[in-house]
Amino acid sequence: xxxxxxxxxxxxxxxxxxxxxxxxxxxxxxxxxxxxxxxxxxxxxxxxxxxxxxxxxxxxxxxxxxxxxxxxxxxxxxxxxxxxxxxxxxxxxxxxxxxxxxxxxxxxxxxxxxxxxxxxxxxxxxxxxxxxxxxxxxxxxxxxxxxxxxxxxxxxxxxxxxxxxxxxxxxxxxxxxxxxxxxxxxxxxxxxxxxxxxxxxxxxxxxxxxxxxxxxxxxxxxxxxxxxxxxxxxxxxxxxxxxxxxxxxxxxxxx
Length: 255
What we know:
Elements: E1 7-8, H1 11-18, H2 26-30, H3 34-37, E2 40-45, E3 48-53, E4 60-64, H4 67-76, E5 80-86, H5 90-93, E6 99-112, E7 124-126, H6 131-137, E8 155-160, E9 163-174, E10 179-187, H7 196-208, E11 214-220, H8 224-232, E12 236-248
Protein name: N-acetyltransferase domain-containing protein
Pfam family, one: Acetyltransf_1
Domain N-acetyltransferase: 98-255
């Protein structure tokens, strides 16, 4: 069986499949937007889906569905490195010979934006002119995934004395699917515990409210302070999942 046999380019089919669990599928739904669809490869096997997003290096790998079907599709993927997101344990999902490193236990948190208002304090909307300032602030968040292209989406920040001291951004938005994924939340160490994180996230959510009804984010299970922040903003936990850097082995030849 060839991998290409499972490739789907039908956005309506993909959207309907993923709609059975929109919070878990939020990033994959976001990648159906015109900005990302050309960089996304969706493989569908019944109610199961594997997404390879090539806009990042290494590519992002998202798994949606049952273990057996996902393991089969993963066994057909090209060998190499991927940043993966999946529920369950890696040894059950990935083919034999997969190398898994830096496994992180994560929460997917969600918020219904309908009718919500937020305390935005002194936070302001950021744009392309702020790209260098954001990149400079990100040195305090080494695991960030910021790219200037993300400034096409809502970003918020706080400047004090002409220095950016806090920001929160958006990874992906799909107004057709009414879904947004936020992230890159960082506060300069000297300005923490002043409520700035809540203000910039609140501002980002306010800016998103005309494009999305569902907002999601990822946070490490061990990040208790971050979880409490998002709970104060109204987020709830949808599911636990794993992130990991993996290296897939060469696909086995067809018999």
